[in-house]
Amino acid sequence: MSIAAPSNPKEITLRGIILGILITLVFTAAQVYLGLKVGLTFATSIPAAVISMALLSAFKDATIQENNIVQTIASAAGTLASVIFVLPGLLMIGWWAHVPFWPTFGACAVGGVLGVMYTVPLRRALVSQSDLPYPEGVAAAEVLKVGMASREGAAEGKAGLRAVVWGSLTSALFAAGGAAKLMAAEVAIFFRTGAGATGIGASSSLALIGAGHLMGITVGIAMLAGLIIAWGILVPLMSNLTPLAAGVEVADHALGIWKTQVRMMGAGVIGIAAIITLAGLAKPILGGLKSAMETARKAKLEGASLDRTELDIPIFIVGLVTLLSMVPAGWLLASFLQGGPLASLSVPLVAVGVGYVLVAGIFAAAVCGYMAGLIGSSNSPVSGIAILTILGAALSVGMVGRSVMGPEVAQALIAYALFVTTVVLAVAVIGNDNLQDLKTGQLVNATPWKQQVGLLIGVAAGSCVVPPVLELLNHANGFVGAPNLDSISDQPLAAPQALLISTLAKGVIGGNLQWDLLGYGVLIGLGLVLINFALKKSSNNQYSLPPLGVGLAIYLPSAVITPVVIGAITGYLFDRAVEKKAGGEAAKRIGVLVMSGFIVGESLFNVALAGLIVLSGQGEPLAVATGMGEGTSMTVALIVGTAIVWGLYRWSAKSGQAVHRS
């Protein structure tokens, strides 16, 4: 086959691989912590691209395509951290006391490789021949183009690196203030509503403000709608049906109703929104496969020349790697069952598990990839995919294990279903990231197969980082709902996604799932789907209310969602304020990097704090006695947080003007 390659720019280099892996170590640790604390992760492509450009600018022969490979490696690894939405469930049900390295590494690596392979045939249908907006992929490409194009771009690259550093330092110091008890970790108010109660809370977290800015106003408004539905309608309604008992605090009553009833409705909203998304994807999936097959046949039989920017990993190799990956997948699942109460059923269970990974993984990767194109990888419906996957896995393995049911067998089946779901989720999130990165590559004239190799390198790096960071946090803090027999701190991490996934698995296999509450959530979700459809149609796709965003806000704690909504609104107001001024576009990009720094700084501080907890053996090693009351510490947190956000937004605007003048 002859290949037309008008140019052959430097792309995969040793220095680029090393830099990508080093950035991976930082961002994966940050992602693992953030996901365990609040159940959300963030896109690492843009900050990785900025750091790469700033460091590779020392080399005169650095290219935009080389920087693109660096961000591709780093983004793949950071995305892979989303497996922590499921893995802590194995600790919560008491199956694991510690996080073993090799099974965790294997689940991440096998799932990640399959995620890359499954989405290779979808590139043409969902990227090059699609009008999907890919907001984060396009933004990363713009950052790369600006940073490499001119003297002004070089100035912006330096300002961007300063933005990441400033954001990281201030958020780390702000988090340290909370750890030292100099300010409240959460600002909250709860009150009675007739015989019931409700309220609202907000974590003192710059990372969540940053996440809201990155998600954007559309998702922010959807989450605001979810907050109103959850805490303005459902919690007051359900708590009035279960009146406040004597001696019970108002906050405890409201939070109890939310945890036991409203949250499950949120899961139903997320689940139905994900199913409806899946139903609309059959055509692009089949179209992508058909296009890939036709291109391969055309190149082979007709001797057609393909441009470098259209070269994927050959479809034959994709198929071969996919089939070969089933061998380590089967070995991994068989090892998980070895010596346990399900050992006698290991052959049928492994067969079901491998088949499930193969089939469910394809659908999960396609759905997440499509949603990454639609609303960005940060907002992709990973929660919904995980919910659907655990329901399918629990039903599948439950049917096989029915013949030998008992308490120990039930726990083992739940654990096995969670482990299979971990592999499928790794497939989904890497598929999600792959298409986003390939869009960036398309816009900077990268070679697709080289990016796909970069993704595989990122998968390997991320798979090495996730297990030790997860075990460090398990030993230091532990997780809500887990025995935490060996944890030092008495403040376990919420791990909200893993808690829900393990609850669903126990409910399906134990036969006591709250189907009525899930059903109510499904009805709410269907209503939201109709509202979203009507809104998009009446505004010619200008406005939307993503049902998944609403469902997440019903399902996640208000303490998590409120600062995300605030971040989305303040980010929108900042962008509107600077867009018509000189250097406005540069200011917007610098603002994004400050917010990325907020996430990185706070998350890395808390990973380091976990290490300090383990080394010192103290649950709160930085705490100092201040004598401040709860109200005072909340006020301090509010004032300091507001000053930091306002000050750095103002700095971003001035930096944008300075870049414009340079």
UniProtKB/TrEMBL annotation:
Species in which this protein is naturally found: Duganella rivi
Name by which UniProt lists this protein: Oligopeptide transporter, OPT family
Main localization (coarse): membrane
PANTHER family cross-referenced by the UniProt entry: OLIGOPEPTIDE TRANSPORTER YGL114W-RELATED (PTHR31645)
Gene Ontology molecular function, alphabetical: oligopeptide transmembrane transporter activity
Entry coiled-coil feature ranges: none
GO CC field: membrane
One Pfam family of this chain: OPT
Keywords in alphabetical order: Membrane, Transmembrane, Transmembrane helix, Transport
Keyword Membrane: yes
Residues annotated as transmembrane: 12-34, 40-59, 71-95, 101-120, 214-234, 264-282, 315-337, 349-370, 382-401, 413-432, 453-473, 493-510, 517-535, 555-574, 590-614, 634-652
InterPro entries noted in UniProt: Oligopep_transpt (IPR004814), OPT (IPR004813), YSL-like (IPR045035)
Membrane topology listed for this record: Multi-pass membrane protein
Subcellular locations according to the entry: Membrane
